[in-house]
């Protein structure tokens, strides 16, 4: 995939200045040659999902951004991981606290199931903290292999874990 495509990215932070971590990640991604920011959701405060009990009280700030990308898909994926590294992400364990998490949600209509690249993201339909901000900016988006629009996916999710708009601004 070497043509231009729209890429949706989920951002999350629960360490340090969470809002600034989100802002910096979007700025770094948008400053990448061949990348243009198209839209970004509001910032949402969310209860942690599937975390070890000792981290259950560390709420996340989450958001979603859409970019126009004219890089090879593998280069875009590598850039997202590089931004995590630039912002001090340390991988200490599965679902442990982090300064930033940058997950590729979709890249055009690409479908991939590789060790380090799964598109569309396999957990979109089960995560309110992804569906709520994504539905804000792309409510009628249909992703390969998923039943319905993003808004329909969101409506089918249970109300918990809670997701609420934050007062944090971009």
What can be said about this structure in brief?
With 170 residues, the protein is of the alpha+beta class.
Topology:
Layout: E1 5-13, H1 18-30, E2 35-40, E3 44-46, E4 60-69, H2 73-86, E5 101-107, E6 112-114, E7 117-119, H3 128-137, H4 150-155, E8 163-165
Antiparallel strand pairs: 1-4, 1-5, 2-4, 3-4, 3-8, 6-7
Distance between the termini: 31 Å
Q: Determine the fraction of residues in helical runs and give it as a percent range.
A: 25-40%
Mean pLDDT: 92
CATH superfamily: 7,8-Dihydro-6-hydroxymethylpterin-pyrophosphokinase HPPK
Sequence stretches where pLDDT stays below 50 over 5 or more residues: none
Gyration radius, rounded: 15 Å
Explain this structure.
The chain has helices at residues 18-30, 73-86, 128-137, 150-155; strands spanning 5-13, 35-40, 44-46, 60-69, 101-107, 112-114, 117-119, 163-165. By secondary structure, the protein is α+β, with helices and mostly antiparallel strands. It has a single domain, classed as 2-Layer Sandwich (Alpha-Beta Plaits). The strands form two sheets. Strands 1, 2, 3, 4, 5 and 8 form a six-stranded antiparallel sheet that branches. The chain has a two-stranded antiparallel sheet with strand order 6-7. The chain is globular and about 45 Å long. The protein starts with a strand and ends in a 5-residue tail after the last strand.
Any key phrases for this structure?
two-stranded antiparallel ribbon; 26% strand; globular; 6-stranded antiparallel sheet; Alpha-Beta Plaits; alpha+beta; single chain; 170 residues; 8 strands
């Amino acid at each position: 995939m070497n043509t231009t495509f729209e890429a949706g990215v989920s951002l999350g932070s629960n360490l340090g200045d969470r809002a600034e971590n989100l802002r910096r990640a979007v700025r770094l991604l948008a400053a990448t040659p061949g990348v243009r920011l198209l839209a970004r959701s509001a910032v949402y405060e969310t209860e942690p999902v599937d975390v070890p009990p000792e981290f259950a009280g560390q709420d996340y700030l989450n958001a979603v951004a859409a970019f126009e990308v004219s890089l090879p898909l593998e280069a875009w994926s590598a850039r997202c991981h590089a931004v995590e590294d630039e912002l001090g992400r340390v991988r200490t364990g599965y679902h442990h606290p982090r300064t930033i998490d940058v997950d590729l949600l979709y890249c055009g209509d690409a479908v991939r199931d590789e060790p380090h690249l799964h598109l569309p993201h396999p957990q979109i339909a089960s995560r309110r903290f992804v569906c709520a901000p994504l539905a804000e900016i792309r409510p009628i988006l249909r992703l390969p292999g998923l039943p319905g629009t993003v808004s329909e996916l969101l409506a089918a999710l249970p109300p918990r874990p809670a997701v609420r708009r934050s007062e944090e601004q971009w």
